[in-house]
Every structure is written in structure tokens, then in C-alpha cells.
Amino acid sequence: MSVQVKEPDNVKQVAANISRNIGDSYTMVDWQQANQPLFSALALERRMGLFIIGLIIAIATLNITTMLILVVVERRRDIAVLSALGATRSGVMLVFIIEGAVVGALGAIAGVVTGFVVCLIGNHYKIVSLPADVYSISNVPLVPGAREMVVAALIAFALSVLATIYPARAASRMRPVETLRDS
Q1: Among candidates 166, 158, 154, 183, which has minimal Cα distance to 71?
Q2: 115 — phi, psi (to 5°)?
Q3: What is the pLDDT at residue 92?
Q4: Which has the closest alpha carbon to 128: 4, 39, 52, 57?
Q5: SS3 for 95?
Q6: Over the stretch 19-31, which tens digit does the pLDDT of each residue have?
Q7: In this structure, are 16 and 52 located in the same domain?
């Protein structure tokens, strides 16, 4: 015998209610227990996905660092003029840290919005479909959690700000007299 529930996430509560009403003479297997191998495989896939995302974030962090190093090299003369006019080392550093923070914030927001839209499109078109004869569910829903999105955005932002420290320090250490003389 099988029972369908309106809310699949409430299956444990429904099973407990049924078990209380009919007693212990029957064994119940809910959809989560029946699909445990699938969920184990998805958990492994999720861990690998997080590893790959970590690599992508590391590469993005290196790209931000490289971009800001190039900005420092391109703006050597401007930095030297600012220093000659009295800008402090911390002031010069702050300019580059703010630039990196803006790039990081825009990237984090764009990433969260893109990820959310991809999840919505994936759910609409059911891109993660499963064979109905093997599993009791036809597709795996993509559930974008607000907490995960905020954590991902904050990590991306923090890493982009950290990536600005080396180029910002390099910019603040420039000697204005030598730079202006060489250009």
C-alpha cells in the first residue's frame, strides 16, 4: 500500500501519525529512505561541487590581485603625484582596497543573482531529472537557500578585499621622486 502526501517535506510527520494510528504491525518506508542511495550520491556530488567552486573562487581571487597589480603599474605616475602632494601611505592603500571592495561587491551580487536565476530556470525546466522506474521522484529540485547565498556572497567579498592587500601595499610603497623621474 502507498500513501501520497501533499507536502513531501512533511513525510516524517505523516509517517509518525500513520504509525501511531495503525500500530507497529506494518513497516513504513518513506521516499527519503527509499532514495537514500540517490541522496548519498548527491551529497558526494555536492562536496565535489564545493571543492570546484573553491577552486573557481581561488582563481577569481588571483584575477582580482593581478588586475589590481596592473592598475598599480598603469597608475604609477598618478600614485606618485598623489604621494608628492601629501597623500599618506594608508590613504593610497585605502584607494586600492576600496576599488577591490567595489569589484568584489559587484561580483558577489552578480554571482548571487545569477545563481538564483539559474536555480529558478533549472526548477522550471526540471534539468536534474531522474528515471521514474528507478526512483520515486522524477526530478531533484534546486533550492536556493538564503543563508547559503549570503554566506557565498560574504566569502566572495571577503576574499576579494583580501586580494587587494598586496597590490595596495605595493602602491603605498612607491617612491614618488623615483617614479616621477623615470616617467
Answers
A1: 166
A2: -60, -40
A3: 92
A4: 39
A5: helix
A6: 888 877 788 888 7
A7: no
Taking a C-beta distance cutoff of 8 angstroms, is the pair 12, 30 a contact? yes
> What distances in angstroms separate CA 145 from CA 102, 120, 177, one per listed residue?
25, 12, 53
Distance, in Å, from the CA atom of 94 to the CA atom of 117, rounded to the nearest integer, reads 34
My answer on whether 45 and 114 are in the same domain is: yes
What is the residue whose three cell numbers read 571577503? 158
Dihedral-angle region of residue 27 (phi above 0 means left; psi in -120 to 50 means alpha; beta otherwise):
beta
The residue whose grid cell reads 570546484 is 52
> pLDDT per residue over 85-97, tens digit each?
999 999 999 998 9
Structural domain harbouring 5: 1-34
Averaged pLDDT for residues 51-56: 90
